[in-house]
Amino acid sequence: MKILSSCLIFVLFYAQLKACEICGCGVGNYYLGLMPQFNKNFVGLRYRSLRFESHLNSRILRTREYFHTTELWGRFYPVSKLQVLTFLPYSFNYQTDINNKQKNLQGFNDIMFLSSYNIFQSQRMYQDTIPRQWKHSIWLGGGLKVPTGRYNFNDNDANQVANPNFQLGSGSFDFVLTAFYNLRYKKFGFNQDIAYKINTKNAHNYRFGNRLSSNSNVFYVQQFKKNFALMPYTGIYYEFSAKDIRENRTIMETGGNLLAGNLGLDVYTFKKITTGFNMQIPLQQKLGNGEFRSENRWNVHFSVLF
User: Fold this and answer.
1) Nearest-CA neighbor of 54 among 96, 14, 23?
2) Architecture per CATH, 2-305
3) Domain residues of the chain, as ranges?
4) Cα 128–chain centre separation
């Protein structure tokens, strides 16, 4: 009986160490979203909150993960039609198990640099019974994620969250391809951004799966006073992540897809200050072979245009 009990304890302990490679956030995750006026530079701060429930099919390993990120970001135009975006995030991640025991990590994440070139922009006037004005712009580009965040994952350490995705950084140089499209008709508009992230293998022989994300929003701009305007928007967010690979072995409990609804509001004051919030509500998801679930996501921001 003692031998059986010892074996059971060992199995449960080992499972806690080895079976937790389940997480949908993906280290180095980022969000572009609707950005302030495309023709201006800006610097700002934003805060993101993501929550996941993991190991849905296990009473023993069921946990909740929380990812809180404060990010300094900005956009600059070194030359006409070329914009450069920088992201410097700082995160506090923590996990709680069914016994309310908590493990956490805190520190800087990986820095990211993106650049985009305006390949097309037009403004046409149509004169008929109802005057109309259309504006289009298309931006194409790419960027680099630099492994400045700490990646020190050891799945034999019981004091760590046994999940590479929980780390502050990915430990790898990764590449991003981006495309932006903007359409404006009077006070109404449509914005589409698509990003594809190509991950490389880190020094621990771990490679996070490539990720595709798409953000589609319709918005309305209402000017109330000379120095005050509101821009409510709504839309759809979609992401797909390929499975991670560790030492040439595909980890089946990773990757997946998520479809979420967007709801947000931006406030413009004094023509230079933008504040706002965004909420993403999951509509359909299959993450980690159904082993975890994403909950509502929040994003608030403050930016200064110049």
Assistant:
1) 23
2) Beta Barrel (2.40)
3) 2-305
4) 44
